[in-house]
Fold each of these.
Amino acid sequence: MTKQTHKTGTDRLFEACELLKLDENEIVLNVQGDEPFIDPVDIQNLFNLLEKNNANMATLLQIYKITKKTILV
């Protein structure tokens, strides 16, 4: 288990990677708890992109079209 003093999930993930002694070439995908409906296909596509391009980091995003009828909360 990781410490309960972390301010962010990313901090917790960093500690977990250190505890597991992951190689710097390992790919770790961090899906936060506030993203329960993320499409598994998007996760796989992100993994493939990271692996293919040897990227250090990537972020998924959703583009929304805002119109006059869009309700912002």
Amino acid sequence: MSLPYGNLTVTAPLEQYIISIFILVAVVLLVRYLIAWFVTTLTRRGIISLGTKSIIVRILDIIVVITIILVIVQLLTGSLAPYVIVTAVGILLLMLFYYEIKEFTAFISLQLQKYAKEVWIEAYFPNISKPFRGRIVEIEPFSSILEDLYGKRVYVSNSMLVSSIIREYRPVVVLKITVRGVEGVELEDVLTPIKEAVEDSPFR
């Protein structure tokens, strides 16, 4: 097989290119296996969710296929044109899907930071002076759902949540309840529903 390089023509045995391709495929698949194993380990430890793992592995498979095709084409043709084309397409996709990539990257960061859901927090968002007090209900690939003390849901971008200062918050409300005895009614029958209502509320 002859490959053109400028004004020179380099002749190499076909077996050499086949071996090079096999080595390339083996290395790429090994790297893919190691990354997938690492992601699976994070999933088993509860650091990232199954949905996150599925998306990461899918993206990884796409990158592996594109890499193998590119290098095989380069080995067979001796041309750098495929790399130039893929680089141009990659830059174009980055510009078109910048927001999605940014938010999904923040989503992975939130997964790794293991923010506990349903835990009451106080969050200081960038360029907002008043803190948000509530809890994280759900963290989705492109946005997160928060709920304030009054049960109102707020949708926040993952990138904003990652850039925020978050600390644990424990709401406190002081209540003074006066209970008067009523004939025929046990005091425990009155206090039990009150205790249950307080235990089910976010306030302590």
